[in-house]
């Protein structure tokens, strides 16, 4: 069992060295694809993170009329019945006051405001989280119909457009990464196909002396994995180095408004994903290729 | 034992290769299958080797119905049959020893057993001193002997040789047939030689089955040992 396992590994490495030129050309094709995948992954995941932050921070503020704070539970129940509402959180006027104090920069201001605690100007606030940006307008409209609601505040129409736009970019990035993965699989598939054709004699001999299909397949799979991983090495290094560099150059933020994901451990994850993608892509490409070949011949 | 009953083969492109063939070959027999190019002898070999399935009829080899063999079972079936070809088909980047050992590695033999068996068959084919040579350092006759050594390494019950002397001069051809006779005797292997070389049949008379245009036209039992 082990003997065979190591033999397949050994044969796989031999295969790569025996067709070094071909293996390297295929690995470099995989490399280019993986670099693109890495790039799109970094952009897409950062966008995803940004939109998540934005979406999480955007909630509808439902302010309750002064003196009607006790009705917050009834209002919450009504809000929860509206389609698209994810959750509601109630903050008492006191909590709102505390929150306001927390957001003040200087201690001096905080002490000054503290004096007004007994004369709290804040209203009870129900923070409503919506499932997606596109539903915000509708939810806001519905809330305004509820009794005892004094004021409903959100980020305005521009927020919706931005959220929808980011959503599309996110989706587009995802599709692109998937398409690039398919491309990489195809590249490995083609190389292994050529390798197999150039080794038809060897396969013929293997099968004629009674090698099982799995035995014939195994070295090619190892070879595919090696090619995939070879192609992943440079993209992995690039992912870490380049992301650190960009993060440093941009001071960790985009236009000063959006924060980039911290490079540690994010860049390592990306490198890991790229390595794994290389291996999986190499495996699938060679598997499809060798299975197709073996099926043609009895 | 090989038993071929009412076997016909028509390829997908419409070529009729075999018509109602009937043939029985006992264990340890030595048989020539003689016919011109396109007579159907190659198809017969492919059927025996599990590469092709007969269109009709039944082929039984060592108790296995070859026509009903499932795809996944073909490799195990082939371990019972050794095949040698006119063009030797050795792995050029491996030594003689490695070429023969290859057949044993494939069936998961132990390293020690491989070493012992390879030495044994190389001795049988008289190539012990060439174990570390590469195929291109050998003559045609020697390469064919390596191919024979590889084919019998797994101790198959049947050895099929498809034009084994096709690329060799008469003297070398003679040596190869002598070697196959020796294997037939010492290893008790059934030998099937497909050939159109009447010279070797004349010099080493055995049972001879003649195929022409997909039909068996004669089955001469001259000199056969059963």
Describe it:
The complex is a heterodimer of chains A (298) and B (226). Chain A is of the alpha+beta class and 298 residues long. Helix content of chain A is 71%, strand content 9%. In chain A, the strands form two sheets. A four-stranded antiparallel beta sheet of chain A has the order 2-3-1-4. A two-stranded antiparallel ribbon of chain A has the order 5-6. Chain A starts with a helix and ends with a helix. The mean pLDDT of chain A is 81. With 226 residues, chain B is an alpha/beta fold. Chain B is globular. The mean pLDDT of chain B is 90. The chains are: A alpha+beta (298), B alpha/beta (226).
Keywords for this entry:
heterodimer; A: 298 residues; alpha+beta; Alpha-Beta Plaits; 2 domains; 4-stranded antiparallel sheet; two-stranded antiparallel sheet; 10 helices; B: 226 residues; alpha/beta; Rossmann fold; 6-stranded mixed sheet; 7 helices; 10 strands
For the secondary structure, the number of strands of chain A is 6
What percent of the residues of chain A sit in helical stretches (DSSP H or I)?
over 70%
CATH topology call of the largest domain in chain B: Rossmann fold
Strand content of chain B: 25-35%
Q: Unreliable segments of chain B (pLDDT under 50, ≥5 consecutive)?
A: none
Distance between the termini of chain B: 12 Å
Give the strand order of the largest sheet of chain B, numbering strands 1, 2, ... along the chain: 6-7-8-3-9-10
Please, what is the oligomeric state? heterodimer
CATH class of the largest domain in chain B: Alpha Beta
Envelope shape of chain B = globular
**Weakly predicted, low-confidence segments of chain A:** none
Write the H/E string of chain A, N to C. Answer: HHEHEHHEHEHHHEEH
CATH architectural type of the largest domain in chain B: 3-Layer(aba) Sandwich
> Would you count the extended β strands of chain B for me?
10
| Average pLDDT rating of chain B | 90
Number of domains of chain A: 2
Helical residue percent band of chain B? 25-40%
Query: Any idea what the CATH superfamily of the largest domain in chain B is called?
Result: P-loop containing nucleotide triphosphate hydrolases
Distance between the termini of chain A: 25 Å
Structural class based on helices, strands and sheet pairing of chain A: alpha+beta
């Amino acid at each position: 069992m082990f003997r065979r396992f190591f033999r397949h590994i050994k044969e796989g490495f031999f295969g790569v060295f025996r067709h070094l030129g071909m293996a390297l050309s295929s690995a470099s094709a995989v490399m280019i694809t993986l670099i693109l995948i890495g790039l799109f992954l970094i952009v897409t995941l950062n966008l995803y993170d940004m939109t998540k932050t934005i979406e999480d921070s955007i909630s509808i503020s439902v302010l309750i009329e002064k003196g009607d704070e006790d009705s917050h539970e009834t209002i919450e129940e009504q809000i929860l019945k509206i389609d698209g509402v994810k959750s509601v959180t109630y903050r008492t006027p006191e909590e709102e006051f505390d929150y306001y104090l927390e957001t003040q920069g200087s201690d001096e201001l905080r002490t000054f405001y503290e004096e007004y605690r007994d004369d709290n100007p804040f209203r009870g606030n129900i923070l409503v989280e919506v499932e997606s940006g596109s539903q915000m307008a509708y939810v806001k409209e519905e809330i305004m119909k509820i009794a005892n609601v004094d004021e409903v505040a959100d980020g305005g129409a521009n927020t919706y457009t931005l959220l929808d736009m980011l959503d599309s970019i996110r989706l587009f990035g995802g599709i692109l990464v998937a398409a690039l993965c398919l491309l990489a699989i195809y590249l490995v598939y083609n190389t292994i196909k050529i390798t197999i054709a150039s080794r038809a004699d060897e396969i013929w001999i293997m099968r004629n002396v009674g090698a099982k299909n799995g035995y014939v397949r195994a070295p090619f799979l190892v070879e595919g994995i090696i090619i995939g991983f070879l192609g992943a090495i440079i993209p992995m290094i690039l992912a870490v180095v380049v992301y650190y560099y960009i993060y440093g150059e941009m001071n960790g933020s985009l236009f000063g408004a959006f924060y980039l994901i911290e490079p540690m451990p994010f860049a390592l994850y990306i490198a890991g994903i790229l390595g794994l993608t290389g291996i999986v892509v190499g495996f699938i490409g060679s598997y499809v290729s060798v299975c197709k070949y073996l099926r043609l011949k009895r | 034992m090989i038993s071929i009953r009412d076997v016909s083969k028509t390829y997908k492109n419409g070529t009729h290769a075999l018509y109602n063939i009937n043939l029985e070959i006992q264990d340890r027999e030595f048989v020539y299958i003689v016919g011109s190019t396109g007579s159907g002898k190659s198809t017969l070999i492919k059927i025996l080797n599990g590469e092709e399935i007969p269109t009709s009829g039944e082929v039984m080899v060592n108790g296995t119905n070859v026509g009903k063999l499932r795809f996944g079972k073909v490799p195990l079936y082939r371990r019972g049959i050794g095949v040698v070809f006119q063009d030797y088909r050795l792995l050029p980047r491996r030594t003689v020893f490695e070429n023969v050992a290859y057949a044993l590695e494939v069936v998961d033999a132990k390293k020690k057993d491989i070493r012992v068996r390879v030495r044994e068959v190389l001795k049988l084919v008289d190539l012990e001193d060439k174990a570390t040579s590469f195929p291109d350092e050998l003559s045609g006759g020697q390469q064919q002997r390596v191919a024979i050594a590889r084919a019998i390494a797994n101790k198959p019950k049947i050895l099929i040789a498809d034009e084994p002397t096709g690329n060799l001069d008469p003297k070398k051809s003679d040596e190869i047939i002598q070697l196959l006779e020796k294997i037939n005797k010492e290893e008790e292997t059934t030998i099937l030689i497909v050939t159109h070389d009447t010279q070797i049949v004349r010099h080493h008379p055995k049972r001879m089955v003649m195929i022409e245009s997909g039909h068996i036209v004669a089955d001469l039992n001259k000199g056969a040992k059963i």
